[in-house]
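dumping these here so i dont lose them again. two proteins, back to back, each one seq then structure tokens. dont judge the mess
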Amino acid sequence: DPSKTGTATVRIYTKNKNDEEPKFSQQVYTPNVDENAGPNTLVTTVVASDKDGDNVRFGFVDDKTESGQFVIEEITGVIRLRGSGISLDRDKYELNVTAMDDGACCPDGKKHIHTSTAVVVVFITDVNDNKPVFKDCGSYSPKVEEGAPNGSPVIKVQATDEDKGVNGQVKYSIVQQPNQKGTKFTVDEETGQVSTNK
């Protein structure tokens, strides 16, 4: 007789184990914040998920929700400037952010809590909010001899601007009064050197 074959369906249920750590959507976040941003300004939102289905809580290193000028919301991952006393006096701030699972996926999940980290580099954008200030302006008292040749040096003025980068660069020019035709002087826009201009 030919051999006979029978079939059966067997369902195998796997028991979930908390063996996955949270994964951030990116390892480095690089938001920009204006230097004059006020309290509670939104900086960025970090995102992480856990393949085990655990809930994820966010924080800074040492399980804190505040780090210097910044605070993080545990549930949402939203990072903001703190509520008061803001002083953004650096070009950038580096924050180490953690994501921790809660082991809710499985019965013994809390015995194996996992944590992962990401870096948030907050770049501070300079705002052009300072005027150039002339150094020793009160002591300027230039004199020119009558008949001095064209291009004769008269005085070198200097101004500084507390803004950073391009906003802190100073260019010089001579302001003409209304109805004034031409000027007997020129200024080098880069150096501040004033010279005669006949």
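---- next one ----
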Amino acid sequence: IGMMTKIRDEITGEVRNDGTIRKTLTKRDKEKLDEAHEINKKILIAAGANPKTILKGIYESGHPCCTAPIGKIVDENQETEIKGLFVSDTSIFPSPLGMPPILTIVAFSKRLSRYLLSCA
């Protein structure tokens, strides 16, 4: 049986000119993940798992975000400095959510669509 842990990580990393992403975890991020691993381990042992079979996986980042935060790169209407260029994805988040972002993305997209319709 596997368990996955999600944390609200600190804002680090970069989007490179070639389009690749480099994400690093801070010391605090790693501490949070290690703490979560110990909690998961206790849960698995309580459920009857053999402690010798419990392995710790690799650190991964699942939902990169915050590369064009509202108030810095996009304005309150999600528009960039380039008139008519709007952004509606996780890059506009001001900070990581620490949970799946789909509902927040949908909310921002609905908000943007209403704004664009009002401008038409």
